[in-house]
Design a protein that fits this description.
By secondary structure, the protein is mainly α. It contains three helices and two strands, in the order αβααβ. The protein has a domain of about 40 residues. Pfam families: DUF6479. This is DUF6479 family protein.
Amino acid sequence: MDRTGYDMAAGAGSAVGILLVVIGGLIVVGLLLWAVRFGIKVKQREPRTPRGGEHPTLPDSGPVHETRQRREPDEVPRAEETGRRLSPHELGSPGTRRSEDQDRPRWDQGSGGSFGSGGSGGR
């Protein structure tokens, strides 16, 4: 039995396999380079964020200040007032309104202020 033909075919097959791996690697490297260039182009088209030392400017009306006010929830109309029960989609979002009493709530002088402990509050 002559194995020379088989050895030659096996040798040629391994060379083709190596060549296919090299070509595949080059394709992968080419795709990665294309993806990086594409990402750079997309990043350049996006709006730029301010860098260190760059700040947004004040509005023409001047600085905006915080306002403190007490709010209370809007009352839900009762079934007796409307004559029927309201569905959830008729209620809308839970709105609030400015409270009549704008004084800040304070702790009672004799209470401990600790979630209903009822203790003397360290006195």
